[in-house]
Amino acid sequence: MNLPWRSHKQASTRGQALVEFALLLPLLVLVLVLALDFGRVFFGWVALNNVVRVAASDAGANPDAWDGVGPTEAAKRANYRAEVFEELTGIGCAPAGGGSWSVASVPDPTFIDVLNSTSPYEPGDHASVKLTCDFSFLTPLVGNILGNPLTISATAEFPVTSGLVAGVPLNDTGTPPSEEGDCTAPDLFGLRANQAQAAFALEGFTGTVTITHPPNGNYVISSQSLVSGSDYDCTADITVYGS
Prior knowledge:
The protein has 243 residues and is of the alpha+beta class. The protein has four helices and eleven strands, in the order H-H-E-E-E-H-E-E-E-E-H-E-E-E-E. The protein has two domains: 19-170, no CATH class; 182-242, 2-Layer Sandwich (Trypsin Inhibitor V, Chain A), CATH 3.30.10. Strand 5 and strand 6 form a beta hairpin. The longest helix is centred in the first third of the chain and has 59 residues, at 3-61.
């Protein structure tokens, strides 16, 4: 008549397993939470590194944007900041010190005079971009352990690939006028209305960009008054339409 004794032993084993599981459960949950939050931080850091690499490569290809003060240079700087801002908004981290990213808060690249010449914007010099942001944890527990937010940063450095060598343009990324005094109208289809001015000025135009439907709205452009690919006087104006 050993059956009752065996039944009692099995029940005791099950009870012991439940107690052990209850003791281990908080530790398992903590490990899972740490893995989730650290995974988010890791992928955010990887994405931030991709942003600075793209930004440094673009700065190295357009050093004249920071080596001049004309409308073309201003348009290139605006386009650079708009592209970096668009990439930063998808990472999920805020600027170091608080607030949120904006086009104006995107820092300019730093140009390093590798050639020890009079200008750091010559081919062979380097363009460096560093971005720092605060990454907020989802769980207070991890934030209390590591500090919330956690500051992450990334730096990239690319050689300057555009400029003048012995007075000759090297890898000029701008669109040259087809004839003296003429500029080629860009294709603005699909751009946001607030990007039209930068794209128009990038082609050398100094005229006014008029935004309609509704006035000053940031819609997607579906048509324009100047025919893309055609040549116009560089002082010509353009009107963009959308909905």
